[in-house]
Amino acid sequence: MSGTNLARILEARAAERGEAVGLYGEDGRSWTFDQIDLVAGGVARALAAEGVGPGDRVAFYLANGPEIVFFLFGAWKLGAVPVTISSLYNAAELAESVAKTDPKLLLVDAGRTDAVADLDDATLAIRSISTQVPAGGVRPLSWGGEARVNAVDVEADWESCILFTGGTTGRPKAVSVTHGGTLGSLERLARVSTGSTGQGTAAPDAKANLIALPLFHSGGQHALLFGYFVGRGAVVWERFGIDRLAGLMERFAFDNFFFLPTMVYDIVHADRDLPFEGVKHVLVAGQAISWTVRRQFEERYRVPILVSYGSTESGHIAGWNGRDMKAGLWRPGSAGRIYPGVELEIRDDDGAALPTGAEGEVVVRSELTKGYVDDAEASAELVRDGWVHTGDMGHVDEDGVLWLSGRKRDMIKCGGFQVWPEEIEDVLREHPLVHDIRVFGRPDDRLGEIPVALVVRDAEAPATDDELTADLVAFARDRLAHFKTPRRVEFVPELERSAAGKVSRASVPDLEEHS
């Protein structure tokens, strides 16, 4: 099936509305859809010159910005597979990500070459995306030219990208998504949002979308692809910030947004008012949003918040749109109405489908993911006979509305990022004054959840609780991305254990609240 290459989305926009601006940087630069396609073609030529071809993985360790758009589409034109590694990761996390995914080439920013100095992989080529001078001994990739390169034909089930996600258990995993599955997810969302599955349906003068999430995040990539799928331009910035957001709102007069709950929290608590005039709605996904924050935002700006439920592995599953709100269909507290075309079942622990209203695990038929590239056992648990097991618990009512009640396992979502307790525990156990540790999530209005560490001190630890807390947080920050660092440390004499002697994760301690 030749039409499934994601690069064809860009090529179609270049053909039908090539002179329309399709990409803006926050620094004033802009590119038309035709220029984006030409620069992406130049990237494809540069990657091919490095020996990259169909099926080869190319890792990106890049600060968020417009350039990533060129590299994504340049790789896709060749049938290559972008491996989008968080720019928030430190050198150790970068090395682990590279080891899991085995890319042929690693692209880094000129200013981040120190992070690749200790990578021990003789088969991995490393190139800086600087086009001027080599940085840190890393040779630059010669990608600045333009070329008209047509996307190669790919099958629907070909790997299109590798994104890092928590999966269903253990440490962060590398999830493989497909060209055909991604396109199918975009078509479902277009049908819900615009009433049409056809590409290029946005008006030629439609406003650009702000891609608020980073392009190493599945939400950022899907926002970019969806905008291009319907024909809207994209504004890509380095990172979220209130003053940056205000400036871009004044410049572009956006008519909709896709935010993480963390961003909405910061907007609500900002001292300045933002120019939300003309914004029809704000879509929130990535994690549950606090009702308090939602009410504060809607009362302050008179703009409705819509929710969307899905995941990197399953795609878009359920949500609400503007038409639902106007028709009075919206149900407060729900995940949303199941989107047309989504096959969803609620199943018990034995895998049997449950009737309407019964609670069980949310399971979705999806061609989006090929599973985890680094964990065959977890992949077999995730995808069974074409059905993705989300790990979320809930039920579907008689109107086809999905209600979530919790997660089957104990993953923490902090600021839209997935955090696994085991990873934090592994790091903090290396601290000489930690005897035992358990990490779990606690609700937080701004971040959704925060990691909290229960620590059993070593009997000989001389430090006070406050001193040890500060030391543990600093220890974690040196070894983990900032969003994984525990925001709170509590000391206990011992951890609750199961009958088998394992640390129990079934209960959440009722910690005394204090500032």
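^ that was protein a. below is b, sequence first then the tokens
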Amino acid sequence: MSRMGAVASSVPESPPPRTVTFTLDGVGKVYPGVVAVSDVTLSGYAGEVLAICGANGAGKSTLTKLLAGQERPTSGRVIVDGYDGEITTPSAALDAGVLLMHQEPVIVDTFSVQENVWLTGLSAAGRRRPWQLVGGRDRAERTRAALGVVGMREVDLGMPAGRLGPGPRQMVALSRSQVNEHRVLLLDETTASTTEEHFKDVESLVRKEREAGATVVFVSHRMPEVFALADRIAVMRNGSLVDVVDTADTTPDEIMTLMIGEAVMALEPPEPVAAADAPTLLEVRDVSSGSASGISFSVREAEIVGVYGLVGSGRSSLARSISGHQHRDTGTVRVRGDEVNPRSPRAALRQGIAYLSEDRRREGFVKDFDNATNLTLSTLGAFSTRGVMHTRRERRRVARLVSDFGIKGGADQLTSSLSGGNQQKVCIAKALESEPDVVVLDEPTKGIDVGARLNIYQIVRGLIERRKAVVVVTSEAEEALALCNRVLVLRDGVIAGEFVSKTSTTDDLTRTALGGEVQ
């Protein structure tokens, strides 16, 4: 008996079976002329975070929409454990316990913050609005508790949501997960419009969901976030599922290679400074605007200067005040030695300053215009005589821009239907069409995957050859060092430090932004 006991004890116990929450069974989705998803079989388990990664156009968002019932599969089935019906509509997915959070947060600007937290239940509340189903103090406390999970407990519940910035808008949308019952939470690029410090709140939310036994599907192109959150990673390429791997058994380089089919080469930091005799194109002196206070710096010809900081540091206020998008309270801005004080973006373009907004969907292009119209918006005068457009000349120029910037879809495609990376190329090409001396780029790779990001980096680096002065505003320390010659770190509205990219680390930048000592 002792021998049998010894033998039995030497046999490793089988791990307990995991609970399947959903299965995509041979799912495919075909649009006219396009295979978006092809024969994907994938399951999610209770209490896990499953990341879905892929380049733009890989099919990851379509896969998420199929699971959320926003698209009906052309082939295969979407199965949610414990739900007998088909998942072919958003309401069916909600009934099955599948909750989708979009990349672009669904926010009603005229509703209060509190009303937006309860927005998902609006259609199911009958004649009453969902925030009216819970009364008085309990309603406010439940709303604050939900917002507290995403770091926004102190926000004014009665404030119109339209006054929130991009990051807080996304946090309000994510808080809905705390007031809506679900078993599967889909986060479709929801961190694309947030910053590094907001990611800590997303991390806290995901941890709470995992502990509650939910399945979190995390769609993202940001490798640090994927490896910080995910238990498993499913990689999509050209509509197909390439592989599913345990996060502990792989590396970011391996995942990126699976995503784009080839090894990704890291960019070397650019040289420390422009030529010593290069002229100063942009000079900013004692500029105060919004949360920026008394900022001074200069940028030479053929130099890229980064502005890095956390939310509230003043980085976007500075960029917008330089480019005529925001009123400047004090200070002066000079371009090639001449003082400029643009009262509008159009005036800034005339004075040699082009600006790329961090919110390209709202400010970067007109969503109802095609690529050709968006590309020439800032230079219409070059293609018209006394108000009459020379369309042939315009089309020739557009064809050249589409080719030079590698914009997919051609001149006649709606810009709004392009991937994030291609939309950004349209915005950059449009900004450069006026041949500005100074180019200000606010979060130029926000919401863009790794392949398109390298593409954008190459375009920005190409501005050096065009002898431009470039200011890159970014919330990512790694990007600031990879793209810029020098980096200014803003904290509490002032410059807290300046670093040469070639000899600095992300730790130097983040410590300075947080108020710590650089080691």
